[in-house]
Amino acid sequence: MKTRHALIMSAGLLFASCGQQHQAESVVKEFLEENLKDASTLSITEYGEIDSTRYLNDSIINKLRKSVNNALYKGDIKFSQPDAKSKLIILRVKYNVNEKEYHDTYYLNNEMTEVVTLKNN
């Protein structure tokens, strides 16, 4: 009986993590479509696995925001404000715009509803 219970719990966790991955991917795709200067040629080629961090403070977040590739992104990006005590969700993405490949890292709020900042790799 314990084995069956453990299998059910494991399956539940697996389905929950798949849902979180899909949620993070959807938020980043929507962010790209809204904030790229030329989103009409956007083609996402690969998503990494979601991860999390608590190591980004306000200073680092502000530096990352100021270093966004202005040739690729619009200048008036609306980022979410992070909760100081909350972890950030990390998602690395490979995508093409105008047939040129980009690799960026996106930091989402803990609820995975908005992008807090990004890092152009």
Detail the topology: elements first, then pairings.
Blueprint: H1 2-35, E1 43-47, E2 51-53, H2 58-66, E3 88-97, E4 100-108, E5 115-120
Antiparallel strand pairs: 1-3, 2-3, 3-4, 4-5
Compact overview of the structure:
Helices cover 36% and strands 27% of the residues.
What does this structure look like?
This protein is an alpha+beta fold. Helix content is 36%, strand content 27%. The protein contains 2 helices and 5 strands, in the order H-E-E-H-E-E-E. It has helices spanning 2-35, 58-66; strands spanning 43-47, 51-53, 88-97, 100-108, 115-120. Strands 1, 2, 3, 4 and 5 form a 5-stranded antiparallel sheet that branches. Strand 3 and strand 4 (100-108) form a beta hairpin. The protein is globular and about 40 Å long.
Tell me the structural class. Answer: alpha+beta
Q: Report strand %.
A: 25-35%
Overall pLDDT level: 88
Low-confidence stretches: 9-16
Report the end-to-end length measured between terminal Cα atoms.
Answer: 49 Å
Rough shape? Answer: globular
Strand element count: 5
What letter string, H or E per element, gives the SSE order?
A: HEEHEEE
Give the C-alpha Rg: 16 Å
Which features does this protein show?
alpha+beta, five-stranded antiparallel beta sheet, 27% strand
